[in-house]
Amino acid sequence: QVQLVESGGGLVQAGGSLRLSCAASGRTFSTYVMGWFRQAPGKEREIVARIGWSAGGTYYADSVVGRFTISRDNAKNTVYLQMNSLKPEDTAVYYCAAKLIYKADYDYWGQGTQVTVSS
Fold first, then answer.
1. pLDDT at 77 over 70
2. Which of these, 104, 111, 99, 59, lies nearest to 70 by C-alpha position?
3. Residue 74 · residue 30 · CB < 8 Å
4. Could you give the C-alpha distances from 41 to 17, 30, 38, 82, 108, in angstroms and in order?
5. Does residue 55 have a pLDDT over 70?
6. Where are the beta strands (DSSP E) in the chain?
7. Contact at 8 Å (CB) between 43 and 75?
8. Which residue has the higher pLDDT, 102 or 61?
9. Quick one: which of 1, 2, 3, 8 has its CA closest to 94?
10. Residue 32 or residue 82, greater confidence
11. What pLDDT was estimated at residue 57?
C-alpha cells in the first residue's frame, strides 16, 4: 500500500510559480512510477507529467512542456512538480499518483490540491 499526500497548491497570478509536493508512505517508493494529473471543472482528468523510478524517463503533456518540471527524491519519498509561467488555464485540482512500472493504470492517488491561477 502507498499513501500519497499532496501539498503546495494555492492562488497565484498568471506568470507566477508554484511548487507542488507529494509525500508518499511505504518503503518501496523508489520502485513506483509517479505521475501528476489535473482536473479542471467540467473537464476530464489529464496527465501533466510522469517520472520513472530512477528519475529518468520523464514525460510532459504538450501544454506544460518548458514550464513544468517533475522531479523526485527517493530518499525523502517525495515527488515534486515545479510549475513556472503559470496560466489561467492551468487552474485545476492537481493529483499525485503512483503505479508499478509494469502496470498500465495508476493504483494509488492522493486527495488532490487546488491550484488557481488568476489573470
1. yes
2. 59
3. yes
4. 21, 32, 10, 22, 22
5. no
6. 4-7, 10-13, 18-24, 32-39, 46-51, 59-60, 68-73, 78-83, 92-100, 108-109, 113-118
7. no
8. 61
9. 8
10. 82
11. 86
